[in-house]
Write a structure and sequence with these properties.
Distance between the termini: 25 Å
Strand content: under 5%
Helix content: 55-70%
Shape: elongated
Length: 227
């Protein structure tokens, strides 16, 4: 198991807070907490596990910075049992059979987000397709669905960060740029019906292909196992 990530993050969190209080115990508490999370979540792939530890460390650093006189023990207690957090991450990733009693929030895209509220993979894939279809009926609705699709995509645990950016480019950015190009360069020249439908089909192909790619590469929180 790769513990260098958690140790370096733990050292960072501990050193930042330790410099304010001069208490070396704080660094040890944070390091031990993060190391326990990483050890208990060893079934996760390295990238997902490191992301979990990094998110926790960032949450701890922010909480300590917001409460200069606060106790690191109090903040860690608010986060919850590290074994519970690991079990929650495993369950969300499809490796666990359930969440331990008293499971708290696992800091992710936003601190305090409940794992159960994360959107399923099928919704992430469906939204850009709906945005394409409904967007031609009412442009504001299509735009709203694209924004919603981007938000749930980047909050999802089913893709890596690079996959999220690629999926965003294929399902939202590229189709939008194609539509803009159409209205700037083709529409003013009074295009024929054939050109009009060719443009729509091209945007549809890019959108559906992007959604299909996201569906194919999805995994249980980046486990690399196709569903």
């Amino acid at each position: 198991m790769n513990t260098k990530k958690s140790q370096s993050v733990g050292n960072s969190a501990g050193n930042n807070t330790g410099s304010n209080t001069g208490n070396s115990t704080r660094s040890e508490l944070v390091r031990d907490y993060l190391a326990t999370v990483e050890r208990e979540a060893s079934a996760l792939p390295a990238e997902r596990r490191q992301e979990l530890v990094a998110d926790l460390a960032e949450h701890i650093e922010i909480a300590l910075a917001e409460r200069p006189g606060g106790s690191d023990r109090e903040i860690l207690r608010e986060l919850g049992d590290p074994r519970t957090i690991a079990a929650t991450a495993l369950q969300e990733s499809g490796f666990g059979t359930g969440v331990l009693p008293g499971a708290g929030a696992v800091p992710g895209a936003g601190a305090g987000d409940a794992p159960g509220r994360r959107s399923p993979a099928w919704l992430v894939v469906l939204l850009p397709v709906l945005a394409f279809g409904l967007g031609y009926l009412w442009v504001p609705l299509g735009f709203a669905l694209k924004v919603a699709g981007a938000v749930v995509l980047f909050r999802s645990r089913h893709w890596t960060k690079s996959q999220k950016w690629t999926g965003f480019g294929l399902t939202a950015l590229a189709p939008s740029l194609m539509n803009v190009a159409w209205f700037l360069f083709s529409y003013p020249n009074d295009p024929s019906q054939a050109e009009y439908w060719t443009a729509i089909v091209a945007v549809a192909v890019v959108t559906v292909a992007g959604a299909g790619w996201l569906w194919r590469v999805r995994s249980d929180a980046n486990t690399g196992q196709r569903q």
